[in-house]
Recover the amino acids of this structure.
């Protein structure tokens, strides 16, 4: 408890010092300073912290960007995914994230009117993301395997990202 109070006092001092020479980005600086000053959950003897790493997220590569540029519906569906990822609350909104990724991936796989060389990579990435969030998702696993088989039939390496 003493550590928490001391850390809070130090945080207030840091915040006060930062405010004296603040810039337009003061809100971001304040939030960063508060995070740094707050005791971590690991330091608290009364809390049990899970050491589970956070999922990586979905990075847009050039192939995904081509697919989004070529198809308005894909862009619309990906916007849902992006909003959830950028909220920083993917784990809290896991069911919503899985549903959004599955809708995007299934659209890309089965309905997107773009070349297979363009549409399968973002679909595969989305299925991989679903499996990061929900390892037992049978539909994502089945569709991922189908896309990997298609890549092999086309004589192309299966993308690893």
């Amino acid at each position: 408890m003493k550590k928490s109070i001391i850390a809070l006092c130090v945080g207030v001092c840091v915040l006060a010092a930062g405010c004296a020479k603040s810039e337009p980005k003061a809100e971001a600086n304040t939030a960063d300073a508060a995070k740094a000053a707050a005791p971590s959950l690991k330091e608290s003897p009364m809390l049990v912290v899970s050491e589970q790493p956070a999922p990586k997220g979905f990075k847009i590569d050039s192939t995904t960007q081509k697919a989004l540029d070529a198809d308005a519906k894909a862009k619309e569906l990906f916007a849902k995914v992006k909003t959830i990822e950028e909220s920083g609350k993917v784990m809290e909104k896991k069911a919503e994230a899985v549903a959004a990724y599955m809708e995007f991936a299934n659209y890309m796989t089965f309905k997107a009117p773009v070349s297979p060389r363009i549409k399968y990579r973002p679909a595969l990435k989305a299925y991989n993301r679903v499996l990061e969030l929900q390892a037992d998702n049978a539909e994502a696993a089945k569709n991922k395997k189908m896309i990997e088989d298609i890549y092999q039939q086309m004589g192309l390496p299966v993308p690893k990202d």
